[in-house]
Amino acid sequence: MAGNDQDLNAYKIVKPAPEAFDKLRLIPFFNIFREDEQLAAVIGNSTWLRVPEGTHVIKEGDQCYDFFVLVKGSARVVKGGSELATIERGEVFGEMGALLHQPRTADIVAHEECVLFRMFVSNLNKLPIDVVLLIITRFYRATATRLQAADKKLAEREV
After folding, report:
1. Which residue of 81, 97, 117, 142 has the smallest Cβ count within 10 Å?
2. Rounded Cα gap, residues 91 and 74, in angstroms
3. Where in the sequence is the domain holding 133, given as residue range(s)?
């Protein structure tokens, strides 16, 4: 693990308690965990962060093996100084670099104060296989959605 880990560790907050599980399930990423035991396993193998506006959560070129879920707030995807997209509540980001062990392809910057769920990809090995399959399915859907949006933008440019 490299990159901005030291910077982000300064923003750690307390993990949600089981009493908050019903509220967490209102957030798209967490609604896939139907059983409290599944959600507890995921929460237990993660870190939670509260980052101020303007914080670089991910820096282009960094080699990091973590992924995030935006629990509260919004963030901007920036590449070469241009804003490419906005990340909203419940969205997963950073999963491609984490899974492929490749450098980050863009900056992710907190547009406002954000609460983030963070998990290192190596922690997937500590989870039950049914939980891992749920997470991987969520990654697949997030990636497919982004690819579909990119295809649409390309098609609009060609017209």
Report:
1. 81
2. 10
3. 5-158
